[in-house]
Each structure stands twice: as structure tokens, then as C-alpha cells.
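[PROTEIN RECORD]
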Amino acid sequence: MTGDGRAIPIRSHPDPVVEYVVEDGRPVVATTNDVFETAFENLRSGDPVENVFDRFDTVEPTGDADPETHVVRGDPVGIYLDGFGSETTYFVRIVPTDADGGFLVFTDLSGCDDVAGTAGVGHVASVISHDLRNPLDVAKAHLRAAEETGDPEHFEAVADAHDRMAQIIRDVLTLTRGDQVVDPSEAVSVGSAAEDAWRSVDTAEATLDVPDALPTTTADPDRVRRLFENLFRNAVEHGATNDWSDPDSGGEEHPASQAPEVTVTVGALDGGFYVADDGPGIPPDERGSVFDPGYTLDGGGTGLGLAIVEQVVAAHDWNLTLTSAPDGGARFEVRF
């Protein structure tokens, strides 16, 4: 049963699932579904959950404690498992339901090429287990409220949460699949790609300025749009919160009503283009880290956006440079 008293039909779940309960401070198996029973033999009700983890050579939680502790506490982390059988690799999500138990959902990663060597795989796992669950919980709460009240605003909140989940899924897939999702075979107008991306991003009070005629290049149009979406989102979010330029704020976010209006400029370069903003900019000592998967100063978002920008650029064999705009903001230069 979940925290609101509803049962979860684990028998029909496509992935292996263990329902566990905490007894005397230890998680033990309560029930399993058929898929789990096929993948893992000789596990019975009442067995310690650690018996599952002990079957693997590699057990790496994304948190800072041992797997059993995370399970008991119901922490929003994931557990990477490798070395069971021939080439079976799993990522396990902890889904707590109440103070006395929850579910472990096993996602088979063996079909993902080089997943263990993927940059930021630990953070990607954390995104799946934590960041994706947040908007899912929001959607569930508003859906229940909509069913009770009929207020259409709740349905709008559900739609927004689903959009956020879709964005996170796209980010994770882009980062883990790498070059497999890049098909640089079409003539792409940089200007059109930028304008399309601007319309698809929540830009609040920001303004887009395109002072130059932008080039056309051979590229993957979907990936170029994703590149612009992430650069625009980065400029708007950090330009509005002043995260990088206010050392006296103690990390406190500014209210949206006090946030400065940001202008984002997309201009032409000799053999490329740039995206710049008039926000607080990025200090030189931070520029080597902002492209790392999971890097985020304010603790919000997935921290995958700029890592995806760098990956898209590299997959096209382009060059990316991060510097300062003339007015002190961040400037990303892409050359073909």
C-alpha cells in the first residue's frame, strides 16, 4: 500500500519489483512479482533484502550510505548493480510508501551501450530516482485534488509536471546515448533552430535578440534545437536568480518579482555562432566545472543541461568556448 492507502499492482509491472518491509531495523522481502522471480531465483518472503545485493559484484548507491541504510530510510537515491550472471546490470529505484516499507524497482541496463563508463552515470541514476519522482509526486497530488474539486487549474499543474518529466527524460537519454542520437545530415538554419527553441522554453520576462544573419550548417536539427533550449534555459534561470554574482546572498534565491530582466543574444561568428546573456556571468574558476554532469550551484534542476550542450557540440565535431560577454554575462561560442 502507498502512503495514501492505495495498492500498487506489482504483478503487472514490466520490471522486477520487490516489496519490502522493515523489521527490527532491517529490510526484508515481503513479496515479489513474476518478472523478479524469473530473474532472481531462490529468494523467499522473509529473506533479508541484502541477499539480493550480495549476488552482485558491484553495488554502488548514489547516496553516501550503504544500500540497506538507504532502503530502511527510504532515501531518494538509486543503486547501481553489476556482475550478476553474464552481463546483467541493473539500476534500482527505492520507492518508499510509509514508515515501514516500500518497493525496489529494478531497471535492466544491459541493453545500454557502455553504461558503466558513461560520464556522470551516478548522477544520471540520481536524476531518475529523485528528480523525476518530484514532478511525478506533484502530478499525483494535483490529480487527486482535481478529482475532488474539479478545479481546472489542477489539470494545468499536472500538464506542467508531465512536461518537466518529459524534459528530464530527454536530458537523460541524450546524455546516456551520446552520438547514437546525433544525425548531422541536414542543412540546418541556426536562426530558425534558435527561434524554435526559444518558443519551447519558459523564458519568463527574458528577451531574445538576434542582431545578425545567422549561418546554415549541416547538422542534426533536433540536437541543435536541444542545444539552444539548454543554453536559453541556463541563461534565463541563472540570470534571474543571480546565483553566480551575489556572494553575500548566502545562496538565497531572489523572488521572481525582484529578478532582473535578462536579454539573450544569438549572434554570428566567423564559422559559427554565439549565445550570450547580460546576466551575472560565470566566474573563470567555475568555467571548468559547469559542463560536468550534475554540476549546479543552486542545487536546483538536473545539472545536465550544459553537459548536453557540450555533448551535442562534440558529436558534431564542433568547438565550444565559454567566455564573458562584453557586458559581463556568459557567452558560449560554437564554431563549426
Residues 184-335 form a domain with the Heat Shock Protein 90 fold (CATH 3.30.565.10). The longest helix spans residues 152-177.
